[in-house]
Design goal:
It is built from 8 helices and 12 strands. With about 280 residues, the protein is of the alpha+beta class. The protein has 2 domains: about 140 residues, no CATH class; about 110 residues, no CATH class. It has a 4-stranded antiparallel sheet with strand order 1-5-3-2. It has a 4-stranded mixed sheet with strand order 4-12-6-10. Strands 7-11-9-8 form a 4-stranded antiparallel sheet. About 10% of the residues have low confidence.
Length: about 280
């Protein structure tokens, strides 16, 4: 017990001594987000307001990205664990602040100090880089004068659950290559539908594809683990959930997999921006 206690004390001491700011950081305005966005679109259109920016890079001791402050805030406060910016945008989990944080891009460069915990880009994008998150929080506070507070609110979305008869899913094989996306297709008769194709994905990945399609938070309540393959054709999804083609609705298509997508409200923790200012370029 004494050994465990000493280990916990040592860990707490190391965390307290870990750098909380970049050694050197630069912020450069890059103008508005280009028409059509900078991160691609999906079958339902876009990654969410404020989320059209660049993909971050993490090379050795340097963090760099061209993106919106909105996206940077979602990464800094750990929302990558729940699919990051799109989840925050469609759930309205980041509110307040000036409009430019959603529409203008900045080039961010940060040198990670010696002795700081090293992370790779996969850890950062999975929300498993707390030390780097703290450095970005410090940059936002110092350069953007950002002040936020947390707030729990009831958010309308969907719950993904198992059907009464159990699921009819296909487990991924060892030779399956990871594939992930939704696209809009048209047949020879001009009938339009959306096609979701995913290989070697977990249920959280599937829930994210449904979030991008419905543009509402989707909470995985299936309790399923492991990797699966999905092929799903459904009518293009619009804001009131109706179909505009001969394909089945998204809700009906999911039932064929032995699952259900049901409307729900859930208490989710969000952020409210109390203050934000345009940074001076350097």
């Amino acid at each position: 017990m004494r050994t465990i206690a000493l280990a916990l004390v040592s860990l707490a001491f190391l965390q307290a001594q870990s750098p909380t700011a970049f050694e050197v950081a630069s912020v450069k305005p890059m103008g508005p987000v280009p028409a059509g966005g900078g991160r691609g679109t999906n079958a339902s259109g876009g990654a969410g307001e404020g989320c059209d920016g660049g993909f971050p890079r993490l090379d050795n001791d340097r963090f760099s990205v061209v993106t919106t402050p909105f996206a940077l805030i979602t990464w800094a406060y750990g929302y990558n664990k729940t699919w990051g910016c799109s989840y925050v945008s469609f759930g309205n989990l980041l509110s307040g602040g000036p409009s430019w944080i959603r529409t203008e891009r900045f080039e961010i460069q940060g040198k990670i100090p010696e002795g700081a915990t090293k992370y790779d880009i996969n850890q950062f994008m999975a929300g498993d880089a707390p030390g780097l998150e703290r450095m970005i929080q410090t940059l936002l506070a110092e350069r953007f004068k950002l002040v936020v507070h947390k707030e729990t609110r009831q958010v309308s979305g969907y719950a993904l659950t198992q059907g009464k008869g159990g699921t009819k899913l296909t487990s991924a094989g060892a030779d399956d290559r990871r594939q992930f996306g939704v696209k809009r297709i048209a047949d020879a008769n001009g009938q339009v539908s959306s096609r979701l194709v995913a290989r070697r994905v977990e249920m959280r990945d599937f829930a994210f594809l449904l979030l991008m399609t419905t543009q509402r938070p989707v909470i995985d309540r299936t309790g399923l683990t492991g990797e699966f393959n999905f092929d799903l054709d459904f009518a293009p999804f619009d804001s009131d959930g109706t179909a505009d083609s001969s394909a089945p609705s998204l809700f009906t298509a999911i039932q064929k997999l032995g699952m259900r997508l049901e409307t729900t409200k859930a208490p989710l923790e969000g952020l409210v921006i109390d203050r934000a200012e345009r940074p001076e370029a350097n």
